[in-house]
Design brief:
Layout lengths: L8 E6 L4 H11 L4 E7 L10 H18 L4 E4 L2 H14 L4 E3 L4 H7 L4 E6 L1 H5 L1 H10 L4 E6 L3 H11 L4 H11 L10 E4 L8 H7 L4 E3 L2 H14 L13 E6 L6 H9 L3 E2 L3
Parallel strand pairs: 1-2, 1-3, 2-9, 3-4, 5-6, 5-7, 7-8, 9-10
Helix pairs in contact: 1-10, 2-3, 4-6
Length: 270
Amino acid sequence: MIPKVHAPRVLIFDSGVGSLSIGAAIHQLIPQANLLYAMDHGGFPYGEWQESALVEHICQAVSALLQRHSADILVMACNSASTAVLPALRNSLSIPVVGVVPAIKPAAQRSHSKVIGLLATPGTIARAYTAQLINDFASDCCIIPVGSRVLAPAIESLFWQENPIDAVLEQIKAELYSHPRAAEMDTVVLACTHFPLLQKPLADLMPNLEWIDSGEAIARRVLHVLNELNLPLNLNGSTAKREVVILGEEPATPILIQGLENMGLSLIDY
């Protein structure tokens, strides 16, 4: 008997609903792949953690998760955590690990005015790695940094409780346009995986800007790694699963469950 061949499974790990934006990009490029979205709601927000504690927490959480749910590749879908935790994860896991970094390079390539907004968490704005990306790929650009403590929590609240978010978006607009060269800005980097989930309302509020995130680049990287692993992607008649597991003590709300179902995702037990 020929053994049954299974489609590869990608584990997408984030502190909350940010995994949804990365997962959507991966699913669009690789619809045959099974996706497991891990939302560490109990650890949210990662930007408030001390770095060594965050590394220990994520390594323990990922290890425990992989004991229950096997995966062929891990995507660390968080800008705040990626640079800190990737070395430890790669040392401790037997599967490939893909991280997320701010899309500063493509933004610098696509901006005509060379005035670029960088919308991120305060932790990502402050990291030396972000400064290095700017130095390496956008040294000829004026970067307008906005480190928001409120936008990612507001997005979590929107998905969990359907709380209104208009006032927060207006606040983001005011912060972006407070810079002396803001009138020249033509591009904004969404440097937190939560933020692309609000790209449409952000674009509606600020229609003259191009919004760039890391989703497509991460999806291409995942495809490259899967091909390197020689994992099957052309399985005739197979239906890919897209499942969500929530870490933490707080149970998913009916609003969140319905929203996930509307996206074609199903909630499974941890």
